[in-house]
Amino acid sequence: MECNMRNGDDCSSEKLAGGEDVSSRTQSDVSSADHLVIMVNGILGSSADWKFAAEQFINTIPDKVFIHRSKSNTSIQTLDGVDVMGERLSLEVLEVIKQKPNLRKISFVAHSVGGLVARYAIGRLYRPPKENLKGSSLEDSKESMPTIGGLIPMNFITVATPHLGSRGNKQVPFLFGVSVLEKAAVLVIHWIFRRTGRHLFLTDDDNGKPPLLKRMLQDFGDCHFMSALRSFHRRVAYSNVACDHIVGWRTSSIRRNVELPKWEDSVNEKYPHIVHEELSKAYDDNQIFTNNDDNINDLEEELVIGLSRVSWEKIDVSFHNSKLSFAAHSVIQVKDNYLHTDGVDVIQHMIDHFCV
């Protein structure tokens, strides 16, 4: 996709379904935009975290996308648990779809824990082909495919998301990989991050059930977690290879330690902070795996295998030469468009490869 940057004044914002919407000021663009992009913030975050990225999407492809920055889980609400947040997000998405009847497609762009919340939400929004309502104006194009909230699933993009949780060795880099500190964190994390902390550190035990992140590896009841994830045209994981003190490289890129690629400084002037890209094909259900990684436990191995049953585009990012390298977890999404400008090329990469 060619980049067609415009002046930021071409963006218009409005409130819809409790969130913040960004669209073109041009009426013809608004009328033709049929692709809903849901942006989801991380822990203790807000819809403002995606302000820069939302505006760049609209400036580049104004006639294609309608951006909704979710506001159903902000600040202290992000401590209520991945499932509770996922339920809120799914209801918010349905309300947006209800108010915008011209929408045909849907994508998600989520930061940090927001990626887990989005994975839960799409599991609730998933509709198998047979459940698509007859008489719909989109019936012909949808009758043979699943939908998310009645829309065609396109891009599912996570940015520095702890897909494997935060419990494993070096999954939370600021604990320095010290076993004693990591074990202590498991015991006290719920005091700080409450129910969300339990989900991240895989210590939740709802009526004897397995940890939520493990349950999200399959479909059960009316939660079609893996079917929903598989239904998207593409799945993308942007990860910080270093300097992210909140979410480690392994958990955000869904890899075993031995699978982490060697990387060098980027020579691409357009994307100077993208240091490695790969397409990980989906595992075959009949494949047999031998865990030769001493730094991965059995539960983490299950998460790797489960999430690898679908293909992923893995985009590795490094801000090690940045003056704000210590803030890589925020820079990668340009959380602040004045302080975190080093991450602009990551957002541009996201837009340039976006399937509309």
Beta-strand percentage? 15-25%
- Order the strands across the largest sheet as they lie in space: 1-2-4-3-5-8-11-13-12
Structural class: alpha/beta
Distance between the termini: 9 Å
Mean pLDDT: 86
Unreliable residue stretches: 1-9, 173-178
- Helix content percent band: 25-40%
Order of helices and strands: EEHEHEHEHEHEEHHEEHEHEHEHH
Q: How many beta strands in the DSSP annotation?
A: 13
What does the main sheet amount to? 9 strands, mixed
Distinct helical segment count: 12
Write down the overall geometry: globular
Rg, alpha carbons: 19 Å
Organism: Centaurea solstitialis
Protein name: DUF676 domain-containing protein
Domain DUF676: 32-251
InterPro entries: AB_hydrolase_fold, DUF676_lipase-like, Lipase-like
Break the fold down into its secondary structure elements and pairings.
Elements: E1 11-16, E2 19-24, H1 27-32, E3 35-40, H2 51-60, E4 65-69, H3 82-99, E5 105-111, H4 113-125, E6 126-127, H5 139-142, E7 147-148, E8 152-159, H6 179-200, H7 212-215, E9 219-220, E10 223-224, H8 225-231, E11 234-240, H9 249-253, E12 274-280, H10 298-307, E13 312-317, H11 328-331, H12 344-352
Parallel strand pairs: 3-4, 3-5, 5-8, 8-11, 11-13
Antiparallel strand pairs: 1-2, 2-4, 6-7, 9-10, 12-13
